[in-house]
Write a structure and sequence with these properties.
671 residues, alpha+beta, eight-stranded mixed sheet, six-stranded antiparallel sheet, disordered N terminus
């Protein structure tokens, strides 16, 4: 089944109203969905009398799906696809916009919301919003569907800094159309600015439903539909990508050996279905084209093996008259796998250590930072050397670690944000499986105030409770709790605050990185206020000042490493190192002046986003193994649960990394 995110549950998919017949199709398909099968199917009523053999329809040939296995179910990642409906169609208020707004990072777009009529949209409170768009054909018209509380509001569009037009926007939903002169928006990548000229005291200049860059003559206004929905063709509903014409879904993927694209295609009237692919640096290839049989689903399998090993854009396109049409259950499928090697017994216990504000490069081989305990652990563990965090500050990053959801899904991204009740934490999943659960957290954001105390038998936040928060005390408390629960399966979460500001560490640690005494303006401790002053240029740092700051930061890491090592040794002394999965990670790194900034939460450079991920559980993770595939913080929760033999959390965004450890690959795009 496709994963339905928290955001998607909140922003209920709206039914179409702009193409006749689609409204009835959306709502009628929901009633017919029981025929799709699955555990929720309920045919109801008494069994029908059996037809005479002579009256039965010929048996359908066996599906090709029975001979293959799913590598990637495209419905499960429909939100990742780019959508063209006679030109790029950017639907605001949900996942789709983030492909074009740099994930919402510093592009001017505000919060998503939903109108009473079901329309999802995004607020724009500043003067303009930025879009990064790749177009494949000359754009003929830019259309913005928007409304504004400001009387006399106008919307303008700039493309690569050039004004291409403006139009009025009313208080009701308005289609603002700007014809484009030939050659002004040629194929390629463009920066598009959507500008609203008049401010509003309430802060909202306009609300934008969608932006369409039309590149096809005669293309009708697109219809906004859910990306996945049951579509009944000829009385048979299938879960599908809805495909009113013209419509193209573009997926980006790496093609595995022996792969095929398998799908059903169907429409209620003449519709052409086409599959195209383009590998990097190669011309586009036409792989499939067929017209749908009237009111019937037809299965097709397209051989992708000539593209094996290549990164491609895969287009699923429909053309023809307006129709109710869809791509039923499209999947990348591969030959059946050989029997998997035994993975060993599930881990009895789990210890997840998160070192707040720890730069991953401080732990890399050859780093000048002294981390003997981590180095010894890494030799016994499997290390993911190209891991990335999904955020650059604590609250949303830790929420992703503990849920397996992207920040855009759990939506716990701002200072006042509270983790939603309908989000399941690792602690809740482990507790439901009979584990004792304990949390030892030295960051005030990861607290009951913000919803992180769900599912724990024991939860301690050292900042909120005004307890000593240094690593020595945190690890000592965690070990005491483990001693109390080592007779049962347990999950312990330990989030230390060293080396977060304030950087203040015993001289024996900072002296490892700084010769002599320091008599500059920074003093014996570095505060957040000093970081801000450095970043804004109000406090100028000499090379010696910066070296002192780095010495304090690195000293904090070495101090932490000493006490983490004592904790890991204590686990071994208790015989818990052989049957316990131990994961060491971070939530983000720290800027130390590389790009003119100090601290974190300000940028997306590697010093902030590189993740530290090392996993030790001898039956599964080979000692000293280094995995180079890119992985994400969002993958930790599903991986940890699989290694512990606990049921996965339904609907997560992450993928278990166990296939990578066993020599396979995760079934998703690699970035």
């Amino acid at each position: 089944m496709p994963r339905i995110s928290v955001v998607q549950r909140r922003l209920v998919a709206r039914a179409a109203t702009s193409i006749s017949g689609w409204r009835a199709l959306v709502w009628g398909a929901a009633a017919a969905c029981a025929a799709c099968g699955g555990k929720d199917a309920d045919p109801g009523g008494p069994p029908a009398a059996e037809e005479p053999a002579a009256a039965r329809a010929p048996a359908a040939p066996p599906s090709v799906r029975t001979k293959l296995r799913t590598h990637r179910a495209l419905l499960a990642e429909a939100g990742r696809a780019e959508l063209s409906a006679g030109g790029p169609f950017i639907d605001f208020g949900g996942y789709d916009q983030y492909k074009y707004t740099r994930g919402g990072w510093n592009t001017g777009w505000g919060e998503s919301a939903q109108a009473p009529d079901g329309t999802t949209y995004t607020e724009l409170s500043g003067a303009r919003g930025t879009l990064d768009v790749v177009v494949r054909a000359p754009v003929r018209e830019v259309v913005v569907r928007a409304r504004s509380p400001v009387a006399g509001q106008r919307v303008g569009v700039l493309v690569d800094g050039v004004d291409v037009g403006a139009a009025d926007v009313g208080s009701d939903w308005t289609l603002a159309s700007m014809p484009i002169a030939p050659g002004k928006i040629a194929p390629g990548r463009h920066t598009v600015h959507v500008l609203f000229t008049k401010p509003n005291r309430s802060g909202v200049r306009a609300e934008v439903d969608w932006v369409w860059l039309r590149d096809t003559d005669g293309a009708a206004q697109p219809v906004s539909l859910p990306r996945v929905m049951p579509i009944p063709i000829g009385g048979t509903p299938k879960r599908a990508l809805p495909a009113p014409t013209p419509r193209t879904y573009s997926f980006y993927l790496h093609v595995p050996p022996g792969a095929s694209l398998v799908f059903d295609y169907g429409a209620d009237r003449a519709t052409t279905f086409a599959v195209r692919a383009q590998a990097d640096g190669e011309p586009e290839r036409a792989l499939f084209e067929a017209q749908a049989k009237p009111n019937a689903w037809t299965e097709a399998a397209v051989d992708l093996s000539p593209l094996a090993g290549k990164a491609i854009r895969l287009d699923l396109a429909t053309s023809g008259a307006a129709a109710a049409a869809g791509w039923g259950e499209p999947e990348i499928m591969v030959p059946p796998a050989d029997a998997a090697a035994p993975a060993g017994p599930p881990a009895r216990n789990v210890v997840l250590i998160l070192i707040d504000t720890a730069r991953a490069d401080a732990f890399a081989p050859g780093s000048p930072v002294k981390t003997p305990a981590y180095d010894a652990f890494a030799k016994q563990a499997t290390v993911f050397v190209n891991a990335y965090n999904n955020e650059n500050w604590t609250k949303p990053s830790v929420a992703t670690t503990l849920t397996g959801l992207y920040p855009v899904t759990h939506d716990t991204k701002r200072d006042p944000s509270v983790l939603p009740d309908d989000v399941t934490l690792l602690s809740e999943q482990f507790k439901s499986a009979g584990f004792a659960t304990g949390a030892f957290v030295a960051n005030g954001f990861i607290s009951g105030k913000f919803g992180f105390d769900q599912g724990w038998d024991f939860f301690r936040n050292y900042i909120r409770e005004e307890r000593p928060s240094d690593a020595e005390h945190v690890y000592a408390d965690a070990l005491e709790w483990i001693d109390q629960h080592k007779g049962q399966r347990f999950f312990a979460y330990i989030q230390t605050i060293d080396p977060h500001v304030v950087y203040q560490v015993d001289r024996k640690y900072s002296a490892l990185y700084f010769d002599g005494d320091y008599d500059g303006p920074l003093g014996d401790a570095i505060t957040a206020e000093e970081q801000v002053a450095l970043s804004k240029g109000k406090l100028k740092a000499t090379d010696r000042d910066r070296k002192w700051l780095e010495a304090l930061y690195n000293g904090e890491i070495t101090y932490h490493d000493e006490h983490m090592g004592a904790f890991l040794d204590a686990l071994a002394q208790r015989g818990l190192d052989g049957d316990t999965l131990v994961v060491i990670t971070n939530d983000h790194g720290e800027e130390l002046g590389e790009h003119g900034r100090w601290g974190h939460g300000h940028s997306l450079y590697d010093e902030l986003l590189r993740d530290l991920v090392a996993m030790r559980y001898p039956p599964l993770f080979p000692a000293g193994k280094r995995i180079a595939d890119p992985v994400e913080d969002v993958d930790l929760a599903p991986t940890i649960l699989e290694v512990a033999g606990v049921d996965p959390i339904p609907g997560v965004d992450g993928e278990s990394l166990v296939p990578l450890v066993r020599g396979g690959r995760v079934a998703r795009p690699l970035y």
